[in-house]
Amino acid sequence: MLAxxxxxxxxxxxxxxxxxxxxxxxxxxxxxxxxxxxxxxVLDYVxxxxxxxxxxxxxxxxxxxxxxxxxxxxxxxxGVTPMRWxxxxxxxxxxxxxxxxxxxxxxxxxxxxxxxxxxxxxxxxRQTFAIAPSRHRRTSLARHTGSxxxxxxxxxxxxxxxxxxxxxxxxxxxxxAS
Length: 178
Description:
By secondary structure, the chain is mainly α. The chain is built from 10 helices and 2 strands; from the N terminus they run αββααααααααα. The termini are close together.
């Protein structure tokens, strides 16, 4: 799926009602599953710890599964490994953060979304969106600067604290994009 479609999903999810309860066998956000309890546990863990180093062992432990079982579940259910999904989620989140507050440094955004290398972040961003993160930042900065209502700088901590639902929606969108 194209990165553009993934971002459109994040926007659609942002507009949808994302209650915490399940509705008709669905995970909040509409992802169907025969057993969403594993997915719920993994999502909760990732949303809480996405900025940290997260390993396959961590995800498997959070789901209460072996590494093999978690990989098999993700591959069968979503056609992607749990770690590939994690990187997709992180890059979608980074794209969104650059769009929201382009005055932050790209290095800060990379590390805040769990990348341990600026080079890896930049390479993966370019592969995913076919644009360098610096160019996306310049475009977003021009949009912010050119708006009639100049937005004030948003501190990093404030953005994360007030957007946990948006972070969870980005995680779900990354599953759909897989």
